[in-house]
Amino acid sequence: MLSHAETTVLGKGEFRLVVCVLCRQRKGKRFCPAVYNVICPTCCGTHRLKKLNCPSSCPYLRQAKALEMAQREAEWAQKSSERAEIEQRLTAFALEEAISTFAAEHPDLTDAEAISALQAVQDAVEREVMSGIPHEPNVDGRAKELALRILKNAQTMRQRIGIPHNVLLARVARLLTQRAMLLSQRTRDGQGYLKAVRIDVPPNSLEQLLERLTSSAGR
Questions:
Q1: Does the reported pTM lie above 0.85?
Q2: What is the DSSP letter of 16?
Q3: How far does the chain reach from its first CA to its final CA, in angstroms?
Q4: Which of 49, 80, 191, 209 is the most exposed place for a label (fewest CB within 10 A)?
């Protein structure tokens, strides 16, 4: 029985095998939204996020990202559990400091925008982990500005104390998204998460933390 992706209807009762539009050799078993045609599993894996501009909605991309990130996170977690916990807490502080500072500058910012920014950061970083190619956050408006601010904080941390690597950054963005969704449900004004962040992480406080960390490391 031929699948839909392996056949093309020529006429009533007539079918032919469809080859991958990329390699022109193997059977095209997967519908690829990036080329809007069928490709083979080999080309899907080889060109994903490199030659192909895969949309986040692609089920094969989502599956591959989940597997790749789970493996990378497991490798990271093998280090000292205490050190891993410290790195995760510091990364979370850096990301939420960006959110806290941005929210202070934009008092009408909503939880929904913050969540969109965190999701865009996670997606962009995971794409870079898989492809080795930097990706911009795929989001618009203020959420895009906030996503770029979050990434800037992460880059500042890397330059000053050597963390976070991208696997950790994607993990923390995912965990903060979950936290934001939970806290957002506790208020009706759409700012439950942002209010909590501004209490936990004061705006414009990242530099103070980094100065303390670098000065203690130099002793």
A1: no
A2: E
A3: 70
A4: 80
Is the peptide bond between 134 and the residue preceding it cis, with omega within 30 degrees of 0?
no
SS3 state at 55: coil
Instruction: Report whether pLDDT(188) > 70.
Output: yes
Q: Considering only 14-28, 62-76, 107-121, which range has the smallest mean pLDDT?
A: 14-28
How does DSSP classify residue 133? S
Paired strand residues for 52:
48
pLDDT at 6 over 50: no
Q: Which residue has the tokens 């990301």?
A: 95
Q: Helix or strand or coil: residue 11?
A: strand
CB 186 within 8 A of CB 192: yes
How confident is the model over 152-167, as a mean pLDDT?
A: 94
Nearest to 30 by CA among 3, 10, 50: 3
pLDDT average, residue stretch 126-148: 94
Distance of CA 113 to CAs 104, 106, 143, Å?
Answer: 14, 11, 5
- Spans of all domains in the chain: 4-62, 79-217
* H helix or E strand, kind and range, residue 128: helix 111-131
pLDDT (mean) for 1-5: 42
| Sign of the C-alpha dihedral computed for residues 160, 199, 82 and 170 taken in this order | negative
Question: Tokens standing for 198?
Answer: 């501004």
Which residue is it, tokens 């056949």?
Answer: 7
Q: Look at residue 42 and give its three-state secondary structure.
A: helix
Q: Are 98 and 104 in contact, with CB atoms under 8 Å apart?
A: no
